[in-house]
Task: inverse folding
């Protein structure tokens, strides 16, 4: 079982994990071993709570396809097992990140002190700006 929160967990048989060959440099090792992990997770067919499913399906994210599949490729490590753990950790992090409930903002009013500070700095800037410009001489010359 993969634990997402205290009350929500996923059975591992809902994940479609396949080993594929890694891309990029790596010498002979990369040509003969399938260490990269391709993790696919069907949101609609999962045992996640309904709130999680709807939240994940309505969010636009580059890892979630239009038909409701989360696709993660992990190839950071040379070990297949470490890549598998990294892919599962990224899936859990994605689900946690996208299902966080945002606190609603309550409108507040500015305090009297903040209003007075704003007005005093405004008048200070006004006097500074009014003193800018050409300097005139008073001796007539």
Result:
């Amino acid at each position: 079982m993969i634990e997402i929160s205290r009350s929500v967990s996923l059975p591992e048989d809902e994940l479609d994990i396949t080993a594929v060959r890694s891309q990029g440099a790596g010498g002979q090792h990369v040509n003969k071993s399938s260490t990269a992990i391709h993790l696919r997770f069907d949101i609609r067919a999962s045992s996640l709570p309904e709130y999680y499913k709807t939240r994940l399906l309505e969010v636009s994210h580059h890892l979630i396809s239009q038909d409701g599949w989360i696709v993660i490729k992990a190839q950071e490590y040379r070990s297949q097992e470490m890549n598998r753990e990294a892919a599962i950790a990224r899936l859990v992090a994605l689900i946690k990140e996208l299902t966080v409930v945002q606190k609603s903002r309550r409108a507040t009013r500015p305090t009297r002190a903040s209003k007075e500070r704003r007005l005093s700095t405004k008048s200070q800037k006004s006097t500074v700006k009014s003193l800018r410009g050409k300097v005139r001489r008073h001796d007539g010359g």
User: Anything to note?
Assistant: The CA atoms of residues 55 and 140 lie 77 Å apart. The chain has four helices and five strands. Helices lie at 28-32, 50-58, 80-98, 112-130.
